[in-house]
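Q: What residues go here?
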């Protein structure tokens, strides 16, 4: 390793390129993964929360940036149709989100999620998660990398009463990392020509306007949004995130976010990395062993994955969409389901504005009044990095609210 002395006496590695395992998709890999389809996976190493304690719920809400007091004020929740302190619907993601599985030596990006929420999670609930591998599609050629395959997973979450609380289908694109790195250098040159500067060069006035917008966006809360008052074509209010910084990623982890496997230190981490070499890489500057998850806060790791800069987490983005919806529907509305595709990277320093539009209204066979929405998440460059859809059940003036229909007797 070539090094140079700093004026302060420190030592810096001149080679700043991190190296991760690289492989190509082979027939043996494909046959091995085919044999695993339909298997319930071992996920204990990636479970982050099992109990919806007051602190766990509060940390999760803070970690996704959700300021709705319904999730953190016990008296407010008791006075609501929930009847007791409750967690945001996306809290299950803070219990378990995903794992690293199969395809050794390939890079991976979480690229889509479909979530269905069935029942509230109350403070004190115990959540048991399971994850089934439903197989893959591909291999197929890719413009980003030589070949890729898409894995399909299904997460289920049950409470201590064995009630199904939520289900999440999610997909991961696995790609040949070596090809992606080569092509990323070409893309970096193209990006430079297109004046894509990372981190984004905000000035103080721009940041002030963004932060003013963030502070102006309030959850609807106890003010009902009645189904009768909503019209097709209505635009929903916005939700702004950013400029996204390192602490935003750290807070998401601290709140139970996505680390797969759970982050560990010193010997606890090294034992894992010895058993699973594909879980880590060597930081070229610090000399430390770092998890692959570090792509979200470590530039060298992101570069090794074929990406120009640190970027957000797919499930983190999913939590933002869910927050957008709970802000809009109010405390007596219910997010039935929501789906998102993760298109393009959300880099640290980006500002993301989420919003949407009502596309349909209907009444279900069991009398629930629902609206359909399309949603977006646009960065400061105008790109929609998370197009999505959602189904929301709204209260009416002459019937029990969707929340009351699902609330547990307390």
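A:
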């Amino acid at each position: 390793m070539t090094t140079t002395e700093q004026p302060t006496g420190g030592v810096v590695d001149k080679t700043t390129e991190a190296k991760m395992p690289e492989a190509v998709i082979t027939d043996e890999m494909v046959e091995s993964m085919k044999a695993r389809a339909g298997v319930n996976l071992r996920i204990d190493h990636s479970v982050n929360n099992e109990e919806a304690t007051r602190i766990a719920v509060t940390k999760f809400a803070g970690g996704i940036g959700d300021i709705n007091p319904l999730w953190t004020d016990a008296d407010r929740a008791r006075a609501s149709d929930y009847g007791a302190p409750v967690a945001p619907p996306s809290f299950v993601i803070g219990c378990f989100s995903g794992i690293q599985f199969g395809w050794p030596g390939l890079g991976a990006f979480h690229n889509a999620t479909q979530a269905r929420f069935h029942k509230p999670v109350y403070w004190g609930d115990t959540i048991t998660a399971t994850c089934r591998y439903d197989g893959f599609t591909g291999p197929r050629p890719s413009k980003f990398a030589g070949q890729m395959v898409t894995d399909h997973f299904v997460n289920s979450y049950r409470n201590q009463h064995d009630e199904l609380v939520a289900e999440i289908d999610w997909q991961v694109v696995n790609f040949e990392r070596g090809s992606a790195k080569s092509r990323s250098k070409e893309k970096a040159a193209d990006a430079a020509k297109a004046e894509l500067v990372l981190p984004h060069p905000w000035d103080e006035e721009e940041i002030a306007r963004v932060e003013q917008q963030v502070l102006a966006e309030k959850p609807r809360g106890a003010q009902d949004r009645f189904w009768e008052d909503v019209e097709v074509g209505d635009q929903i209010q916005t939700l702004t995130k950013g400029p996204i910084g390192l602490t935003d990623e750290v807070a998401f982890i601290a709140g139970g976010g996505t680390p797969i496997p759970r982050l560990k230190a010193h010997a606890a981490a090294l034992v894992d990395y010895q058993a699973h070499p594909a879980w880590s890489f060597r930081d070229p500057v610090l000399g430390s062993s770092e998890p692959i998850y570090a792509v979200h806060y470590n530039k060298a790791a992101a570069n090794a994955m074929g990406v120009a800069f640190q970027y957000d987490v797919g499930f983190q983005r999913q939590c933002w969409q869910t927050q957008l919806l709970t802000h809009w529907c109010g405390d007596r509305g219910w997010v039935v389901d929501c789906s998102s595709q993760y298109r393009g990277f959300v880099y640290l320093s980006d500002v993301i504005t989420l919003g949407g539009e009502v596309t349909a209204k209907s009444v279900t066979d069991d009398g629930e009044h629902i609206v359909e929405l399309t949603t977006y998440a646009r960065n400061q460059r105008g790109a929609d990095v998370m197009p999505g859809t959602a189904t929301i059940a709204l209260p009416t003036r002459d019937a029990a609210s969707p929340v009351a229909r699902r609330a547990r007797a307390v």
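A: Context that may help when evaluating the design: The radius of gyration is 22 Å. Confidence is low (pLDDT under 50) at residues 1-14.
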